[in-house]
Design brief:
Order of helices and strands: HHHHH
Helix content: over 70%
Shape: elongated
Oligomer: single chain
Mean pLDDT: 81
Low-confidence stretches: none
Length: 170
């Protein structure tokens, strides 16, 4: 790079003053400044465009890597699903071969409406027995509060009756 110090800039200014003249020097300096500003803006624009292109290339490479990874995962997943599906079909076919052939297989036959009604009735009976099997006294003592009482009412309720000074503080 060119090393421009203060003395060299002063020398360039004096030569420009002599060559161009004092009346045209401000206009030339203004034009040189605008050209220098345009050049800086153009260089900055080129730098930013190159940077964006580099980022875009990096993003394209990342997108390609992600697509490759997604396709690999898709292949692995389809292989696993195919293996599981073949295992399930194999188990079902072996279960059908092992079955003796009568029509009372609960997995293959759909229940009739009469069978569904019996099942619903049995469910209701079981639920009623399950819910009513707990005694009422246990439900009351299980800790569920049916009424909320204040702290003072609770103290007076559970205070022993023969205690001295029940009404005064000590």
């Amino acid at each position: 790079m060119i090393d421009l110090g203060l003395s060299k800039l002063a020398l360039i200014g004096v030569v420009a003053l002599v060559v161009i003249g004092p009346e045209k020097l401000p206009r030339v300096a203004r034009m040189a400044g605008t050209l220098y500003g345009r050049a800086q803006r153009y260089i900055n624009q080129v730098k930013s465009e190159v940077g964006r292109e580099m980022e875009l290339d990096a993003l394209r490479k990342m997108q390609k890597d992600m697509q490759d990874a997604a396709s690999d995962i898709g292949k692995d997943l389809s292989e696993c699903v195919g293996e599981a599906q073949s295992a399930i079909y194999g188990a079902l076919s072996s279960a059908q071969h092992d079955y003796n052939g009568s029509d009372d297989n609960p997995l293959l036959n759909t229940p009739t409406p009469d069978q569904l009604a019996i099942k619903q009735k049995n469910f209701r009976k079981k639920k009623l027995a399950r819910m009513s099997a707990v005694p009422v006294w246990f439900k009351h003592q299980s800790g569920r509060k049916t009424r909320v009482i204040s702290g003072a009412a609770r103290v007076s309720r559970f205070r022993p009756t023969g205690s001295p000074g029940a009404g005064s503080f000590h």
